[in-house]
Task: inverse folding
């Protein structure tokens, strides 16, 4: 898979004077069934998260509050996404090195994932990632 398989997805937004509503349906708005949701919050200024790839996991990343950047890297090229709206998310396909930085204070990053947590699905070593990309 390459960077071109990743993309920004705009979610439905039901605008209402009482407050907006957005929803995500696995297999409909995003190209996988949702098996897990996790979120990053209380991220201190200057902190980076991520710095790994997943062998098989599909993910969808939404900024629920505040803002942050996510950099995706398929081993050949990189792209920086600035996330600051809760009705946009970025679909991250498998075998994509990623890190998140530039978290604003109070920001919340929610991630929907295609499988339960599995440490054996991680590639945490950048050289190992580059070797795996070269071999594929
Ligand atoms: P990790 O995915 O490594 O986050 P980051 O790359 O941003 O540091 O997760 C951090 C820790 O949390 C790691 O010990 C694994 C654990 N974890 C779970 O137990 N379940 C989960 O669903 C996730 C995402 C992480």
Result:
């Amino acid at each position: 898979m390459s960077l071109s398989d990743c993309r920004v997805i705009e979610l439905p937004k039901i605008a209402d004077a009482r407050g907006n509503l957005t929803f995500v349906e696995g297999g409909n708005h995003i190209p996988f069934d949702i098996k897990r949701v996790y979120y990053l919050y209380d991220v201190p200024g200057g902190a980076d998260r991520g710095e790994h790839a997943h062998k098989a996991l599909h993910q969808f990343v939404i900024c629920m509050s505040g803002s942050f950047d996510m950099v995706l890297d398929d081993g050949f090229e990189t792209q920086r996404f600035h996330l600051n709206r809760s009705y946009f998310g970025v679909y991250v396909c498998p075998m994509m090195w990623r890190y998140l930085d530039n978290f604003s204070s109070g920001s919340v990053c929610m991630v929907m994932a295609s499988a339960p947590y599995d440490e054996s699905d991680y590639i945490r070593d950048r050289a190992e990632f580059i070797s795996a990309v070269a071999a594929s």
In short: Residues 36, 38, 49-52, 117 surround thymidine-5'-diphosphate (CB under 6 Å).
